[in-house]
Write a structure and sequence with these properties.
With 228 residues, the protein is an alpha+beta fold. It is 30% helix and 25% strand. A hairpin with a 2-residue loop joins strand 5 and strand 6. The longest helix has 22 residues. It is built from five helices and six strands.
Length: 228
């Protein structure tokens, strides 16, 4: 069984679904590196202007082809782009390898032990207080991570509440480790708890409440009431 058939099963990142997604991943990584360089180097204005012109010339190329909005559309589009769930590892803003906005976060589950793990290193683009990760990004990472970790219960739900406790500053340019377990399950309500560690010290903890629906989360945008 390949990692595409059973995602989140190994500490090694899931490979791209096909050659097209591999190319998109490489482009996204180059965009991340460019963003980091722009924020950390005092580049002469003439060089910045040349870069701006080059990027402007590239936009029409990127606009070629049919417009596809969202994972559902990608999964249903002509051609073999992968399933909705596989596409989450490519397109989401927190863990999508092919999304330049994403760091990305890598997650995996140990279903036998009932534990979830994740790793990430955040550069200067994610700075909040000097030399520290922005607290909003820590909350977003916990949301994505605990949302994945709830798969340990065999259910999936949307975020109902997220409570983050910031215990100490989380450093930039340092490998960060997330850990999570299932705290309790009450019918449709799944409570997850997790920790964020840097250099052997816990920098933040989080408890997340996720609410599952009989019809799943695919039509969540059409629901008027998310929780009871």
């Amino acid at each position: 069984m390949s990692s595409h058939d059973k995602p989140f099963s190994t500490p090694k990142p899931m490979p791209p679904y096909n050659a097209l997604w591999a190319t998109r991943r490489r482009i996204a990584q180059q965009l991340r590196e460019l963003n980091e360089l722009l924020l950390t180097h005092d580049v002469p204005h003439s060089d910045l202007s040349a870069m701006e012109s080059t990027l402007a010339d590239m936009l029409p190329i990127a606009n070629h082809g049919s417009a596809i909005g969202g994972r559902l559309a990608w999964a249903d589009a002509p051609g073999d782009h992968g399933t909705y769930h596989l596409l989450s590892r490519e397109t989401t803003p927190i863990a999508g390898h092919a999304n330049a906005m994403s760091p990305p976060l890598h997650m995996w589950l140990d279903r036998d032990k009932g534990e979830a793990y994740a790793t990430i290193t955040l550069g200067w683009a994610y700075e909040g207080p000097p030399k520290c990760v922005h607290g909003g990004w820590i909350a977003a990472l916990f949301d994505e991570f605990l949302g994945c970790a709830q798969l340990l219960t065999g259910q999936t739900g949307a975020t109902g509440h997220l409570g983050v406790r910031y215990k100490r500053p989380t450093p930039l340019n340092t490998e960060l480790t997330f850990f999570a377990t299932v705290k309790e399950v009450h019918g449709r309500k799944i409570v997850m708890e997790g920790t964020l560690t840097a250099d052997g010290m816990v920098t933040a903890t989080c408890e997340g409440l996720f609410v599952s629906f009989a019809e799943g989360v695919m039509n969540l945008a059409e629901r008027k009431l998310v929780t009871d």
